[in-house]
Amino acid sequence: MGDDGAEGEAPRCVGCGRRVRTLFVQYSPGNIRLMKCDVCKAVADPYIECEFMIILIDLILHKTRAYRHLLFNKLHIGSSLDKVGTIRYHATSRKCCSTFSNSLTPTQLGILCQFILMHIVLDAFRISVSKNNKADGDSSRSTLSTICNCSEVLGDALLGNIIFTAMLLLGVRYILKFSFDITRYRQILLAIIISSYFKLFLLTMMVWEFPSSAIFIVEAFVLSSNVVALRVVTRFPKAHCVGVCFMAHAAKHLTERWLMWTP
Ligand SMILES: [Zn+2]
Asked: 12 C-alpha to center of ligand 1: Å?
């Protein structure tokens, strides 16, 4: 059982998703040899030698290999999720669950908090753009009303994200049938939040003007990226992951619409 902990931290082959002992062997600084996967016989993680832009392009192209590299080998998400698969596939006893508890590392927790904050701010910006589109021409506002408007938009974004998280976790619980484990659910949430990186595109709307349809395109891209990330970390069929992500996004969208039209 001593190997279990080490195996839980082991990296993964980006091709097949299986665990590998190591991704590379370093002979001297800058001189490494990439290791091959024992299962698929391909290089376990060729992205180690790639520039960030190559990885980003593959992420934008929704390549599961790039998502595995980012989520498993860079952020080390999924060690507790892996145990779910092991438990499900081998139908071992429930006692195993207690030995499989794995908490988020401080780095993962820091990333999770930063990304949640960024999400809420970007959503608030998106909602304010939609509101301004709805009521354009009303430019003469006092400072007090601007502050009230900002806090209202932030509140709407916060509520939208709470609904999104709740629906996502309910989907994971009842559609993917993951037993409740706070660490496991936090790792899924982290994977979903990281895969929403395309939301950063909204920042460009602060500088340049885009049609309002650009917001819809960004949201559609974030949804599809969330599906890939959920499929990578849970190894469930695409249809299940689409169902969970679509339900969460739809609930968030409807909540925001309802808040927007409520005086
Ligand atoms: Zn492999």
From this structure: 8
Is residue 110 predicted with pLDDT exceeding 70? Answer: yes
Q: What's the CA-to-centroid distance between 46 and ligand 1, angstroms? A: 12
The most distant pair of C-alpha atoms in the chain lies apart, rounded to whole Å, by 68
- Residue 24: which H helix or E strand, with range? strand 24-28
Tell me which of 93 and 230 has the higher pLDDT.
230
Domain containing residue 230: 103-261
Over residues 220-237, the mean pLDDT reads 93
Distance, CA of 35 to CA of 180 (rounded, Å): 36
Report the C-alpha gap between 263 and 196 in whole angstroms.
Answer: 30
Same domain? 126 vs 223: yes
pTM of the model: 0.81
- How remote is the CA of residue 44 from the centroid of ligand 1, in Å? 6
Judge if 43 and 116 occupy the same domain: no
Is residue 93 within a helix (H) or strand (E), and if so which, with residue range? none
How many Å lie between the centroid of ligand 1 and the Cα of residue 22? 12
